[in-house]
Recover the amino acids of this structure.
């Protein structure tokens, strides 16, 4: 069975109306929609319209403010801390990224730590904002604790993604956007829907034993940091996730580790918060703060061309450049439409009914 | 058989004399020795005195300049590019890190890309320089190509390590220092010396098939990016290694990817360089460019305490904080001495003879 397919314009119009229905300004609704749909276009289906009803439920629970006063609470020439005022991360993060870009224009680089925010969609959206300014963009965020550090049975970290976007000249940009776990939660959700087993090394049971049950998280299990086990470097994945958590939340004054509030509205945030909301960390570096842009971008073209031309292992088609699969999916879906899982379609229909909007 | 043990002072004195014998100033010899011995103290034996004769051979081959003119060739308030003038990375990197720290004092953060350098020892040394200034330190470097990107049989990346050092209050600092491969080359060298097999997922054969032969690299095999295989996220390890390569070398104007010159003197650098020497990328962020230092460090203490207290998987002693093992080894070795592999001792004796110095 193939998933039903929807046009970009149809989904955009629906999402816009929903965000406006919960009180977003035109500008914020447009921005939030753009971020969400970019995920669907790029094939990161777990972070697109599939999450729209989740944001609405958080708003219903009083945990998202759709008219936030997003403001700088501290700054230096190359840094700022932004208070997201419980706004949608989909709006707060791009606003914070604009500040990072503005700082970079003058100081060479700009680094913005964000507190009091919510789930910001795909990290790639925010870091890629830097590209059009001939800047390198970086974005990271912490997230609800689903990941057990190496040797732990407790879930203390989120899937804490990192994205680095680097401009090139004639080649498409280098865009590395990845969860710091062996597999992103979205990958697990796909297996759950298909009732398939997960490979060993993705998840562990409540007691820390390896598991292939894709539903293990519901029974107190945990995702495993990139590396899968100690012998294969899971302590490095743990380091990466911890780094993202500290930059996003300890620097900004957001909640970190097990105190990060859950994305799902049916779970309450911890009663003893250590900060405000969830945290992000965004950065922009002007390429010509290091060397002339043209020179840099010509060498990026050379880097990309050389790696793409690498001799492959027999049976493998090609060596990919980070960002290749997402860019290709995006071009294809912009042309032919975006497939949505039937459960997501059902969910969006319900959501439409709630606001007397048809999906 | 246990390895012979040497006092820190003995090794320091020997290393100082060697660096002076090849033309380093007192200051540079002291700095290079401090960096090398920090690796031995912290238990990263592959990056300590075991490499001393390697640096000397590079100097003999005319590839290291022991009286370099290390200078800034471009800068903005928060960035600089440093030309290492073919100097020892052990000297160039700490000098560049000082520049990053100076920039951070004024601009909030400082980011220095370095070209025309050599192997810089452990990344941890340089990033930890920031801690005493209540700054977060970052260090990364590219290295000789030994790693095959996902799906590639060609070795296009080095083990390209990243270190992030973050200060705390009463707790020791968070120091995550790791190669972006499943296992560092040093881990493989240990197995080679002991004639043991490597776990599957560390290395691949010349044709890309998985291998457990710790000597595989000599036959054209390659190290594998963190993640071990595509299903377990090796494309993320490849992203990390690529990121380090681009920040270290494409930003600075050093050689990148397969053009990075080899550390061993018996292999010639590529005949068609795309830049100068190898590259590093160093960063410093003033903690109080984001929030008051005391507040930040109190929360870091809370982060560390909570993670250290995590309930462990049965049979595991404790959940580690990044930097714990190295700090504990360092304290132990400072007290009881530093064990050196007999082959390293032999190598150092030969080196001493060359300069009429006794080891």
């Amino acid at each position: 069975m193939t998933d039903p397919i929807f046009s970009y314009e149809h989904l955009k119009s629906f999402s816009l109306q929903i965000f406006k229905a919960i009180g977003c300004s035109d500008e914020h609704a447009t921005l939030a929609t753009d971020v969400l749909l970019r995920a669907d276009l790029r094939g990161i289906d777990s972070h697109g319209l599939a999450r729209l009803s989740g944001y609405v439920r958080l708003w219903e629970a009083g945990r998202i403010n759709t008219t936030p006063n997003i403001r700088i609470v501290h700054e230096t020439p190359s840094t700022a801390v932004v208070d997201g005022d419980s706004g949608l991360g989909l709006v707060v993060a791009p606003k914070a990224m604009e500040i990072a870009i503005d700082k970079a224009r003058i100081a060479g680089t700009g680094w913005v730590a964000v507190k009091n925010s919510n789930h910001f969609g795909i990290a790639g959206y925010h870091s890629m904002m830097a590209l059009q300014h001939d800047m390198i963009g970086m974005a990271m965020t912490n997230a609800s604790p689903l990941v057990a550090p190496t040797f732990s049975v407790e879930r203390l970290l989120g899937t804490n993604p990192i994205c680095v976007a680097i401009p090139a000249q004639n080649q498409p940009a280098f865009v590395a956007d990845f969860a710091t776990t062996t597999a992103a939660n979205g990958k697990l959700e796909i297996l759950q829907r298909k009732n398939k087993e997960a490979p060993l090394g993705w998840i562990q049971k409540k007691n820390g034993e390896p598991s292939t049950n894709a539903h293990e998280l519901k029974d107190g299990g945990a995702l495993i940091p990139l590396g899968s086990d100690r012998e294969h470097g899971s302590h490095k994945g743990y380091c990466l996730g911890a780094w993202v958590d500290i930059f996003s939340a300890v620097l900004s004054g957001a909640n970190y580790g097990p105190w990060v509030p859950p994305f799902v509205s049916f779970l309450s945030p911890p009663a003893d918060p250590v900060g405000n909301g969830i945290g992000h960390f965004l950065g922009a570096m002007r390429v010509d703060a290091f060397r002339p842009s043209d020179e840099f971008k010509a060498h990026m073209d050379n880097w990309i061309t050389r790696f793409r031309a690498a001799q492959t292992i027999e049976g493998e088609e090609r060596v990919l450049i980070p960002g290749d699969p997402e860019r290709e999916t995006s071009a294809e879906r912009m042309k032919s439409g975006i497939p949505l899982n039937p459960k997501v379609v059902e969910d969006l229909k319900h959501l439409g009914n709630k606001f007397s909007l048809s999906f």
In short: Chain A has a mean pLDDT of 97.
